[in-house]
């Protein structure tokens, strides 16, 4: 391999590694779309490294071994893409769960949180950088609180119905029960 080809190969590898580094920085910022873009650019760089020569020329250039090494690098990046896509979906579930929770739909929020919790418990990729353990504590508290909040919401509804019937004693009782839950 000529010196020029080695330098070109090294520059391509540096570029691919730089894209991977930027992808990791984006994950920490929870910018999953940018991270996925950077990882795809890294794959594009590694694809440039494939030696196209076949036959005796490829044998002398070491095409088989180098292509195998390049394919391993590409597969590693593809695994990172798969993990990043899972994290992206998980954080979307958490955000949707938060919106549902804040709007009072505790049952649906709990479902979103449980789906996110399952993935986060299994996840090992960037676990510390994403504060996964802290997030699991928050998700667990919201999941645990959901049944109580649904009960309180039901009591409020019963209080509203009693007020509409002018049964103020029952309404006050239902509202007091709801307050004790909150």
What do these coordinates show?
The protein is mainly α and 182 residues long. The protein is 85% helix and 0% strand. The protein contains 7 helices and no strands. It has helices at residues 3-28, 32-48, 55-61, 63-102, 106-122, 132-164, 168-181. The chain is rod-shaped.
- Write down how many β-strands occur, each being a DSSP E stretch of 2 or more residues: 0
Q: What percent strand?
A: under 5%
Major sheet details: none
Q: pLDDT average, as an integer?
A: 87
Q: What class do helices, strands and sheet pairing give?
A: mainly alpha
Round the Cα radius of gyration to an integer and report it. 27 Å
Distance between the termini: 72 Å
Write the element-wise H/E pattern from the N-terminal end onward. Answer: HHHHHHH
Low-pLDDT residue intervals, each spanning 5 or more residues: 55-60
Tally of contiguous helical segments:
7
Helix content: over 70%
Shape verdict = rod-shaped
């Amino acid at each position: 391999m000529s010196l020029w080809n080695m330098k070109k190969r090294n520059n391509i590898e540096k570029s691919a590694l730089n894209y991977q580094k930027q992808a990791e920085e984006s994950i920490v910022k929870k910018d999953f779309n940018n991270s996925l873009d950077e990882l795809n650019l890294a794959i594009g760089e590694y694809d440039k490294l494939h030696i196209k020569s076949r036959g005796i020329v490829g044998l002398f250039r070491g095409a088989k071994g180098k292509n195998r090494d390049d394919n391993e690098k590409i597969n590693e990046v593809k695994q990172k893409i798969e993990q990043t896509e899972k994290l992206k979906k998980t954080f979307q579930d958490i955000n949707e769960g938060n919106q549902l929770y804040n709007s009072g739909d505790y049952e649906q929020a709990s479902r979103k949180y449980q789906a996110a919790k399952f993935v986060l418990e299994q996840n090992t990729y960037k676990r510390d950088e994403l504060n996964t353990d802290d997030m699991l504590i928050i998700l667990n508290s919201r999941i645990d609180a959901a049944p109580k909040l649904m009960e309180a919401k039901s009591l409020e509804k019963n209080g509203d119905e009693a007020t509409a019937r002018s049964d103020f004693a029952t309404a006050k009782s239902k509202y007091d029960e709801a307050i004790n839950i909150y």
